[in-house]
Design brief:
- By secondary structure, this protein is mainly α.
- Helix content is about 70%, strand content about 0%.
């Protein structure tokens, strides 16, 4: 089967996924004051959906490539690689939240602006179960900066499910597993509101998000099975069609809107995530060929930002909470474009600087350790 492929544009895609989330978290006081920006920042959750599709594609490709090449999946090696990438930064933040003095945490944690939220519970936080704590309480944590940690929990649950599925399922049944996963996600989104009568927290667990991973995984399956055939097929598509695909996805991201409420099954709530997953998978596909005219090189600044996107995703919320307190202290409310632009610029640059330092001086040593442990000499 040859060596594993390097996909040149995935890092840049990770940055775009983060940036949509970044826009969502900008704490404007009134969308009426910024109608254009309020429109652009809405539906920021779609950035998380893109992260899931990217993970589904890449993890599926890696596991299926290994399964086809060696007729097995090394579970231990997989968990070592995932653990040393995700856990160090995750547990650094979680531990700091539990051990720092309250007066320090108050500066950066942020407390729910609506006055509700549950207190952090280490039984859930330390075992990647924050999303289920949210389910049980039907609310977000009172520390607003870790509200988004539910997505990291789902990623961990995906890793566990996928590696064992790829280990036990025969090679000729993997595609069927992926298709069944899409169907299970659709059925779960239909059934869940009928069973779980939460008013605020729904579809924040693995099963209702399974089609994001599975549809990206279907592309990963075909690429792992026969990359040249997939790349040749994509290259045979007229260039203007591929460009049009990119424009359609961009237009969807810009003009899409959230569907509320989630408390009852509707066609939009049930099938919209599947449509999103298909669109993002098509976007990834048109960038796959090695000689594609559509690509982001590894030297592109966006690719570097994507490389540190895990840190950006984690740190930007803390930066925004702290910076917002500074703006309030100096009487710089986000009610005009000058203050908003300054806030966004400072928060973005600060997030990049902190994430870059974290990547090179905290995360990278673990990544080097990962390579020493898992790469066979």
């Amino acid at each position: 089967m040859g060596n594993k492929l390097h996909f040149h544009s995935l890092d840049a895609f990770r940055f775009f996924a983060f940036f949509k989330v970044f826009l969502l978290h900008v704490p404007i006081t009134s969308a009426v004051a910024f109608p254009v920006f309020g429109f652009l920042k809405k539906g920021g959750g779609i950035g998380v959906s893109f992260f899931f599709v990217l993970s589904g594609f890449l993890i599926s490709y890696l596991l299926i490539h290994e399964k086809i090449s060696t007729n097995k999946v090394d579970i231990k090696k997989f968990f070592i690689r995932r653990t040393l990438r995700i856990w160090p930064l995750f547990f650094l933040i979680i531990i700091l939240m539990f051990v720092l003095p309250v007066n320090i945490k108050t500066l950066f944690l942020g407390f729910n602006e609506y006055g509700y939220g549950y207190d952090l519970d280490w039984h859930f936080s330390f075992f990647f179960l924050e999303n289920y704590k949210m389910y049980l309480t039907d609310m977000h944590p009172n520390a607003t900066t870790i509200t988004m940690f539910w997505t990291l929990c789902i990623e961990e649950h995906f890793y566990i499910l996928w590696v064992f599925a790829m280990f036990f399922i025969p090679k000729n049944r993997i595609l069927l597993f992926l298709i069944c996963s899409v169907i299970l996600a659709i059925v779960s989104r239909f059934i869940e509101p009928l069973v779980i009568h939460n008013e605020h927290i729904e579809t924040q667990e693995i099963f209702t998000n399974l089609d994001f991973f599975a549809i990206g995984g279907i592309l990963g399956y075909f690429v792992a099975k026969n990359f040249e055939k997939v790349a040749g097929f994509i290259d045979s598509i007229p260039f203007f069609i591929r460009v049009l695909t990119v424009l359609i996805v961009i237009a969807f991201v810009v003009f899409q809107s959230e569907i509320y409420p989630y408390h009852y099954p509707s066609v939009g709530n049930v099938f919209r995530p599947t449509v999103i997953a298909i669109l993002f998978t098509c976007l990834i596909a048109v960038f796959i060929p090695k000689d594609s005219k559509l690509k982001f090189s590894d030297k592109n600044p966006l690719s570097y930002l994507g490389k540190i996107s895990y840190g950006l995703y984690i740190y930007h919320a803390f930066v925004m909470v702290g910076l917002n307190k500074i703006f309030i202290h100096f009487n710089l409310p986000l009610v005009n474009w000058a203050n908003l632009s300054l806030f966004m610029l400072i928060s973005f640059i600060s997030s990049v600087v902190i994430s870059s330092l974290s990547y090179h001086y905290f995360e990278k040593p673990f990544l080097r350790l990962r390579e020493r442990i898992t790469i066979k000499k």
